[in-house]
């Protein structure tokens, strides 16, 4: 069993650990700095899932993607479930919680980008009602 709640600064060590499981290694100080930057913005939300003993076993971040081309859209900036706890409903529960928050916050749509290497998520999101976009590619350019 698990519960979902809003994340707070005491969760940053667990969030950093889970970032590493997703392939984005981060130390607690970096995550804490990022968390503080978005925690005060009411258009962002970070939620964690805790197991019975209070350990954080997953997190999700909803962020705004406001453009001149579209109405208020929420984007999942990250979703991670501990590798030992996957396929137990934690991810689906986090997404459902994020969807409810986004709806209550005025978002009209929720989108997520998924790396082509994450084959398990390519069936996960459609099973939750997300439609696959066939008309976009994401291009990246490092500015450092």
What distinguishing features does this structure have?
single chain; 5-stranded mixed sheet; 144 residues; alpha+beta
Radius of gyration, CA atoms, in whole angstroms: 15 Å
Would you tell me which CATH topology applies?
Aminopeptidase
Q: What's the CATH architecture name?
A: 3-Layer(aba) Sandwich
The CATH H-level superfamily is Gcn5-related N-acetyltransferase (GNAT)
Structural class: alpha+beta
Cα shape: globular
Work out the count of structural domains: 1
Roughly what percent helix? 25-40%
How many E-type strands?
A: 5
* CATH class category: Alpha Beta
Query: Helical stretch count?
Result: 4
* Largest sheet properties: 5 strands, mixed
**What is the rounded distance between the termini?**
43 Å
Question: What percentage of the residues does DSSP assign to strands (E)?
Answer: 15-25%
Low-confidence stretches: none
Overall mean pLDDT: 90
SSE string: EHHEEEHEH
Provide the spatial order of strands within the biggest beta sheet.
1-2-3-4-5
């Amino acid at each position: 069993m698990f519960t979902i709640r809003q994340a707070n600064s005491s969760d940053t060590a667990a969030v950093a650990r889970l970032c590493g499981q997703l392939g984005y290694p981060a130390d607690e100080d970096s995550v804490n700095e990022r968390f503080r930057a978005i925690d005060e913005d009411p258009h962002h939300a970070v939620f964690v899932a805790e197991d019975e003993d209070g350990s954080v076993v997953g997190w999700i971040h909803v962020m705004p993607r406001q453009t001149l081309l579209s109405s208020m859209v929420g984007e999942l900036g990250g979703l991670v479930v501990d590798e030992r706890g996957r396929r137990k409903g934690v991810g689906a529960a986090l997404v459902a919680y994020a969807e409810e928050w986004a709806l209550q916050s005025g978002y009209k749509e929720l989108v997520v980008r998924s790396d082509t290497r994450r084959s398990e998520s390519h069936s996960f999101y459609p099973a939750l009602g997300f439609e696959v976009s066939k008309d976009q590619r994401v291009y990246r350019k490092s500015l450092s």
